[in-house]
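re: ur question from yesterday

yeah so i grabbed the chain u mentioned. its 99 aa long if i counted rite. heres the sequnce exactly as i have it in my notes:
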Amino acid sequence: MINITSRLPVAIIEAWTRYFGLGGITAARSPVELLLLLIFGFLIMMGTVMLTQGVRKVPIHSTRRSAPVGPVGQHAVLTAKSRACCVRADRLGNVPPKP
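ran it thru and got these structure tokens back, copy pasting raw so excuse formatting
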């Protein structure tokens, strides 16, 4: 990362020299080519962001938990509401005994 950052000023000067000329050096490439390169780079970046945002909208499904109720093999489905209405715990997670 540091090497990329330290080379950035040199890369900008080289690109300017290549497309516009600098200090008596004539331009080797057309400025139109630079414009097209920047437009394509922006489109690729925009497409990557759109793809990333689209992937985030996939829903996540969780499994249902069950607890034994009666004889072996019978289970009741536990939901957030059924657990919240029946169990009151203090802030340490201790459940008081039933009165």
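noticed a couple things. Residues 2-55 form one domain. also Confidence is low (pLDDT under 50) at residues 80-84.
anyway ttyl
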